[in-house]
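Hey,

The postdoc asked me to send both predictions to you directly instead of through the lab channel. I've kept everything plain text so nothing gets mangled by the mail client. Protein one:
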Amino acid sequence: MVYLSFAQPPKNTVSLVVLGTVQDAGSPHIACKKECCAKLFANSDPDRKVVSLGLLDSKNKKTYLFEATPDIAEQLKTMKRYASWKADELPDGIFLTHAHIGHYTGLMYLGKEATNAKSVRTYTMPKMKLFLESNGPWDQLVSEKNIELLPLENNKAVNLSSGLQVIPFTVPHRDEYSETVGYTIIGPNKSALFIPDIDKWEKWETRITDEIGKVDYAFLDATFYDREEINTRNISEIPHPFVIESMTLFKELPTSEKKKIHFIHFNHTNPLLHPKSAKSKAVLKNGFQIARIGQEFQL
């Protein structure tokens, strides 16, 4: 793993780069009056980007983006800097998880007001595809051929190359406008699980511990550390696994399994955004990892 180096991977490799770790609304958060955002409104932190992963296929000179966030412009530049070849400015494909603001609204920058892109391949599940086709301004991206929507099927692999697969799978979440998926990303040598949003692990018909056992890295929803950090909202309206719940669920896993887990998708109130916080140190002490922007993982 390489951290914040913009190091170019060896030729003929596949790697994942963490391009963002924050929950949809970003950090600082709109209208936040708490201490967690006060200093950031005065001095922004360039590492506070909305959750996204970049996938680089050096052998085939292709890049893929997981999530189209409001921070897409900087995230695409970052991914380009990691490429060992002269990569295009726009990715060869975008994989969306669902229709919540942090995960798809970056598509707007592919439209005529911005890049006026040409047929960027955008992978979506059926309800997500219908949502984009049927609602403005997203339908204009389709009609103007700024994006090309490619259908995904639950648990059906997309073969990006002979040694690179992406498999979508549905997870329970607040599906107001689309279904919600996670992804298994399978490279030539290693694989990764990406589940930035889920209501609760126990609501999923699949055992998360089984899925962790099948991969080398697991980037998992860690929106809230615990319920104490949210005192302005009804937490039942925005369910996520608390980090303390996940650590309890995973506490009996072998050390080799725990170290696969990289918590990601942090609310602006989450102390895991601060590497030196006591709770960040506690997570690491318990054998887990915390995703940080700029980390690179070989697949």
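Protein two:
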Amino acid sequence: MKISILLPYKENFSPVYAGAVSLFVNDTSKISKYKQRITVYGNTKFKKKFSINYKNLILKKKILNSTSKIYVENFLKIESKNKSDIIEIHNRPSYVKQILSKIKSNIILFYHNDPLSMYGSETIEERNYLLENCEYIVVISEWIKSQFIKNLNPDHSLLSKIHVIPHSINKIKNAKIIKGKKNNIIFVGKLNSQKGYDIFGNVIIKILNKYKNWYGIVIGDEEREKLIFNHERLKILGFIEHSKVIKLFEKSSIAAVPSRWEEPLGRTGIEASSRGCATIVSNRGGLPETITNGIILKTLSENELYDRIEYLIKNPNQRKKLQKNSILNFKLDHKNIVQKIDDVRKKILNKYFFNIDKKSKLKILHITNFNLRYFGRLHFNTGTRINNGLIRLEHNVLSLSDRDLVSFSKSLRDYSGAKFLNNLIEKTIHNFEPNLVILGHADRVDAEMLTDIKNKFRNIKVAQWFLDPLSKKGPDYLKNKNRILDKDKCCDANFLTTAPDALDFKINNSFYIPNPCDQSIDNLKNFNNEPISDIFYAISHGVHRGTLRSGKLDEREKFIKKLLKKCRNIDFDLYGMFNKQPVWGNKFLQCLTNSKMGLNLSRGKPIKYYSSDRIAQLMGNGLLTFIDEETQYGDFFNDDELIFYKTIEDLAEKIKKFKKDNYKLKNIARKGHNKYHKFFNSTKVANYIIDKTFGIKSKYFWDKE
């Protein structure tokens, strides 16, 4: 992995004249767990650089061309030859658009100043662009965050991209340093009125005149504004190296930061507090966030600052208490802050460079119909079974019932509920950031939305499973074909209960899966009992109805009528036909317990490997099961595990045969049940979906590749 850090143009990455951004980047990069992968890019004339990996961008200025744009173009030339996995841009939002117009990259934008005063983020439109196109935005204070989101109305998923990570300093281990402090009052910063130097200058002269054993120290410079203060006990040191500044904080008792400017954060407050100064700050911008134990000026005036300094001079115990607590309660040390920055980097790595293997624990969003609105009528459906398998594999599974959601959210503005559903899914993905999205018959999920999600989260995989018949000679052929093809191109894998090579059309990356049984659902073991009925068969006219549809005739009813005539002495337990209503929920499972045998008859002409989920319910619960041999289930089961029939006459004879041989019936039912649970269980099917989607090589009983 490669991380490139792009500094602002003219930022001096040198200990000789380092600004706050350079100090932040140097301090955090050199102890980052990714330090060997970080390269800092900048432009400075100073020969002495910080010791971490740094490349100076040499610029050739051109007439009428922006130097900043030339600077970024030079960076892009290097980037095009050796692409970074993450680009971190500091304090220059305008660089984001220029970079993304040339290359696709994962950008973290760092703000060290007020976004509303910076070119590239002044307008609402510009800040919305940054929110949508940056992977994350790091701000150094809550105040900067409040400025960035001012007048915006972003949803929570976009707001979650913003992380508050302040500047930092290495923490002192104990408070013994307080014993060595001298009567120094220190000011560090630009020597101008915006930083409050005029206020400090007038106050320090009065303090030094009154308190003869106290001294003043001023560190900083200013070319544009000249504020002159002189006193024999006031040392004005100009700009000095940062390490020397820290030493002077350690020796000083009081630090003053009376800034008029809305400070984005205020590094002086952090450094002074970390070194045990009794620190006084104005209530401007992010300055109050820099101190844990200190004094915040209620009003910014010479009188207020004078009174606070004098109070600390006159009350040494209170002064020492503030000094001690500033050290003990200090939280903004390098170790904590670097951990937060590395966590943001890790989020990107997990999102786009997460290596999936058999041991990986995934975040999975499973979208299918869990039938909540029908009160558990189909609590044993395939979606629930696959969900159970995913959870048994110890993955973090978030389940969305798409058809329930559209049903509950329909309105005059959103008649189908699809807008609500797709908006909900998109926001959920932004918040949950799954590794895998699995769809099951999720027809209202928009393919375009999924494609957009995959562009934003390039590590997300999408898979769909489909249970309905896809044979040209089966029911709803065109409808089902269009349903599966609607999203096959945005799916990394498609899973069918029909053999893909038996279809007359191509589905991208398609694989066969058996209808899964589930140990927590299919637990009847009828072969251990003495059921009162011979053979069970049930159909329905749709779960959404719950009852028979008047005037509708299922083609399978004709088959059953003929079968009944050929099996006069067989006790059939039939539902969903001949004016007998379908059975649902737990009553369905109770009805299963009443039969020794079950007929696995699906709609349409038999096609390779296709069966409805009926087969899992029958074999999974230990019924002797009959199936048409044209389904080619003989590839998976032997004659002593599953009964194959050629014709209706053959089926009738075999039913009558096994009615007479209860011992053999039970043995075959038991062997079929055991094999189905061993090889076709929901955990294996769920694992197969994951393995095929992520290209993990594994062997499965039904996979004939």
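Summary for protein two, as requested: The radius of gyration is 36 Å.

Thanks,
C.
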